[in-house]
Design a protein that fits this description.
Helices cover about 20% and strands about 30% of the residues. It has about 140 residues and is an alpha/beta fold. The protein has a single domain, classed as Rossmann fold. A seven-stranded mixed beta sheet has the order 1-7-6-2-5-4-3, with helices on one face. The longest helix is centred in the first third of the chain and has 14 residues. The chain is globular.
Length: about 140
């Protein structure tokens, strides 16, 4: 399955993510790909909204991971600062790929695709002018 959407704003990007979030099952991984500023964290914020998570979603760039709890659990990983896949394994975060509970969203998943489960949902975000983004979802 492949779905392509042109988002006109960050709010629309979150709506696309909310739609996907309503369809996700526990144990699934959403692998996010895109250049800096394409809206990967915005997309994760939309997933969090679909899970009724009350707290603000922040990029986990310096922490590597954050876990949020609402009606469902959302694990948020960021592989941007990792130098090797081994670093993720050393701290045990590979246990979230896939998670036993909830859903895991992975920013910069293309840096270490060998860590991403084969059945992950890949979301590619691309600049399409101003606030517009081309969002491609592949299952």
């Amino acid at each position: 399955m492949e779905k392509i959407v042109i988002s006109e704003s960050p709010e629309e990007t979150m709506e696309v993510a909310m739609d996907l979030g309503r369809r996700l099952r526990d144990g699934e991984v959403v692998a996010l790909v895109g250049e800096l500023g394409t809206g990967k964290t915005t997309f994760v914020k939309g997933l969090a909204r679909s899970f009724f998570i009350p707290e603000e979603v922040l990029s986990p760039s310096f922490l590597l991971a954050r876990t949020y709890r609402g009606k469902r659990v959302l694990h948020h990983l960021d592989l941007y600062r990792l130098r090797s896949a081994g670093e993720l394994l050393e701290v045990g975060l590979d246990a979230l790929l896939p998670p036993e509970e909830g859903v895991t969203a992975v920013e910069w998943a293309d840096r270490f695709p060998e860590l991403i489960p084969k059945d992950a949902i890949w979301v590619t975000l691309e600049h399409a002018g101003d606030d517009r983004r081309k969002i491609t979802i592949r299952r």
